[in-house]
Structure prediction request, 348 residues.
Amino acid sequence: MSAIISKDEPSPLPSHLIPCYLQENDIVPEFKNMVLSLPREKGWLASYLHLYQGFWHSTRQIQGVLSIQKHFKSLDNDILLVTTPKSGTTWLKAIIFSLVNRSVFPDTKHNHPLLTTNPHTLVPILELSLYMPSKSKHVIPDLSSIFKASVDSPRFLSTHLPYVSLPDSVKNSPCKLVYLCRNPKDVFVSLWHFTNRLKPESCAQNTIEESFEKFCEGVSSYGPVWDHSLGYWKVSSERPEKVLFLNYDDMRKEPFSHVKKLAEFLGFPFSTEEENNGDVTRILELCTFDNLSNLEVNRTGKLSSGEENKAFFRRGEVGDWVNYLTPEMTKKIDSIVEQKLHGSGLKF
Ligand code: PAP
Prediction:
């Protein structure tokens, strides 16, 4: 993988056309030297991706990553959802939120927060929202005032950080990590659509060929995706009580058994009575692609960072890659994945 400054310098947009999620001109002084010292490549959406601890981050996101590493302290009963982008984060946020809060919000048809709030607003990604410095300012969030955590009500947080970059307090505390991966071909197709969708109209779209080459080299947000998954796979094998390793494709096939397993892992098991009452099924129904994507909030709303909520709901299918990848592309990515995962026991 090359790690040189791209010769293809991106041209900055006029500032009034830059949505919040693309604003990256001001690096906070605290992190400036560090960020500028990192190898970088042209990004898919942001101007640059910077290589840090073996993974690629936009200029905006790397500052959130550095901030978490410096300032975030986990609590023993935190629940942290970790995903690679486009592996089903929105879906699993909705499911975990509903299952850990089911005693507070038992009615999934009325007055449930997911009916009026996007899962990303309910469960912000630490480095992309709470710890994200904005406009040259870096305010460390007071999580104790944001989350009213207690023994019965853990904080439910999320991140896309690779295992190597997690703060020590997360690695060393008993807090639980739920990791979700997805087959890399669908991740790629989803990411390619998503980044093009978030581009301002005045910017050229990325071709599938150029994005595919970058993805295969590992140069994508939080990539290489296979290294990301392997990091958590290894820890989940060594410490199964710490990391529950899930796969989007398997969950789509057998959602019921996976949600029960998830609830047990998190210490919120469904009782036989709840199961017989249909509580698992009700949560799954609330969180289906069709249900969430058709809610008013997800058709018309936006995140505070500017992305349209509907951008997080595209097709929600397993295997959509067949509609986009040529046989040559398929062969290439399959062979990379096979080589990277060889001997690990992980399969997509
Ligand atoms: P993020 O990392 O930016 O948060 P993430 O939610 O992980 O995105 O991934 C989005 C994918 O999950 C989309 O896949 P697609 O592009 O292949 O269609 C999206 O459609 C899918 N998705 C979103 N919500 C659901 C859901 N409720 N059930 C199943 N899949 C979903």
Q: What stands out?
A: The mean pLDDT is 91. The CA atoms of residues 226 and 241 lie 22 Å apart.
